[in-house]
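## tool: complex_structure
## caller: assistant
## args:
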Amino acid sequence: MTADDPTATRGPVHIVGTGLLGTSIALALTARGVSVTLADTSPSMLALARDLGAGTIARADANTASDTGPTPSAAGDAPALVVVAVPPDVTADEVAHALRRFPDAVVTDVASVKSVLLAELHELAAGDPRVELSRYVGSHPMAGREKSGAAAASADLFIGRPWVLAAHEDASERAILTVRALAADAGASLVSMDADEHDDAVALISHVPQLMASLMAAQLVDAPERALALAGQGVRDVTRIAASEPRLWSAILTGNAAAVSPLLRTIRDDLDALVRAIDRAAAEGPLAPGAVAGISRLIAAGNDGVARVPGKHGGARRRYAEVTVLVPDEPGELGRLFSEVGEIGVNIEDFQMEHSPKQKVGMAIVSVTQEAAQPLEQALEQRGWRVVAP
Amino acid sequence: MTADDPTATRGPVHIVGTGLLGTSIALALTARGVSVTLADTSPSMLALARDLGAGTIARADANTASDTGPTPSAAGDAPALVVVAVPPDVTADEVAHALRRFPDAVVTDVASVKSVLLAELHELAAGDPRVELSRYVGSHPMAGREKSGAAAASADLFIGRPWVLAAHEDASERAILTVRALAADAGASLVSMDADEHDDAVALISHVPQLMASLMAAQLVDAPERALALAGQGVRDVTRIAASEPRLWSAILTGNAAAVSPLLRTIRDDLDALVRAIDRAAAEGPLAPGAVAGISRLIAAGNDGVARVPGKHGGARRRYAEVTVLVPDEPGELGRLFSEVGEIGVNIEDFQMEHSPKQKVGMAIVSVTQEAAQPLEQALEQRGWRVVAP
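## result:
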């Protein structure tokens, strides 16, 4: 479905957890006219999500698993769908709580691990008939960023991204259809997997990359300033996601340890072989037997691996064209650029500044709609800006 | 220097090697009106560089180290500067050849490793008085991309990037000034380091990140299509530079093995500790003693490390304070914000837009100096802007 289709999600939606994912889902649904109530243990996160237009605040008690009070929906209607968007280690409790609390609602979650979660839910269900797992379907929208919290949320976070629906065998038709509709309204493309296939996949394309970024970034903690000043886009990209939340990621990684472990062991074996090759070169010189072969074998395998990563999904930034302009590093210059872009009548969708120490000129990378890009480049050049050829 | 300054490089420049760096340097100099001659062992690369406007083709023999013929400059003038831009493992021979061939020229190279190269050059100089190292200064422009070859070249490649000048003790004043002028004309910011400091720095911020990207990407070679279909921006960024050339990178890594080896060993130790923590969680469950602590310790160290990577503005990210402002999604609003920040007299160090087409409001994250942050927040609120509490 595209954003032009009528809203697929029926009835009010209650979001538990107004972090990055919860607030982004709320923004996407609110934008489609769905009535959304919000709950979070943090009043300030909750207030920010509301101020961003994510929905109305449900009575505060709605977000605590110990609560068993009446329906808290601000609109007074029981939610048709509850989305639990809290850290993985507390997701099972919140899902069970929502199933108890809203006897008619479908409940889903957005946790990055599915097998451990399902096992925990079966335990909780065994002890409590109100925890009806037929009304639960696990899901995992494959969208996120190194920044967390409502402040980083966006209604188009999920556009063109895969949204994994991990239905277990007891899930009802209604539950599955409700979560499919949610993914459609968020603009995501639905992928059906069972919990194990999902967990193996995310270990490879999300969890282990996170650890590699952290392992690299950890080496920079005590690095000399002068060395770090040489950092380019390569090390920035490799380490970008190392800025992720320790609490969230320990929960994800311990929760998916069974799938992550064998991959890490393979990488350690490859690293051992690499260290042997490098040490040979260090001891016997660049042409030491086996050194070049050992290293180029790994680099070549990396070429093959990265070539298999599919092209960009239609994520938000990807839908825009970038216009790069050289801007003198003086107060007001960036403001002048933005004012003139406004005068030209183009809306700035996103913006990035490429800058460097001691450099008198910065590169302003302005993201605009594809149609606006070329006219903007011409108009800016006419106004004397230096536009860098794409 | 900015693009408005007069050309600093004096006299014709001869470029040996029309790959990404050689062609980009040639394009930058040609754009400044410097007369540039080109040489490369590959006639097709050479023709492409010429067709891109990088310069005129020197007689083909100019690029072979065995050649000892007369000056090949198309313009008929001996070059004042020769830039050797060939893979590291053949750089020493080409530098020595250029010193012999052009007895009055300053010679530099752009190789990513400096110590091994200097040792090779001292050997070559010992056997041949024409190899006058006083006319040689090593340099390393810290710019590149995962794409190689003249086709990926750009006159803007070095703008705002560090350009390391690695002068050895015998380098003449003239040689140093000539290479400084080259860096200035390329729009780069000069950094002086000796060969060892340079090699340690690039091992950390370039060579080891390359290996981490390759180690990760190599795991994707046999991955299921359905798993790869879930790939997001995280794994793309971590593996992007894994697309680099095996031949070039084996030469770089064997050439800098002494500096790379200790870093790789530290990473392997960290990885071993991580594997133990993950295995504990896999065997005893997510709450296994030591598991969460072991993992979150690494993620937290990664947070600290990545925070030290200079941001888009060079300085460490955390040197700046972020002021977040809600901005109506209408043309000109962002311009109005920037103009008013200018009126308030605050310089914008960096800027990021958290934005979503279907949202009626975007979040403008303005980075300013720590001192400027609070006054700016107050002034903006007085002007009616909605500032999000940090």
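## assistant note: Residues 321-388 of chain B form a domain with the Alpha-Beta Plaits fold (CATH 3.30.70.260). The longest strand of chain B covers residues 320-328. Handing back to user.
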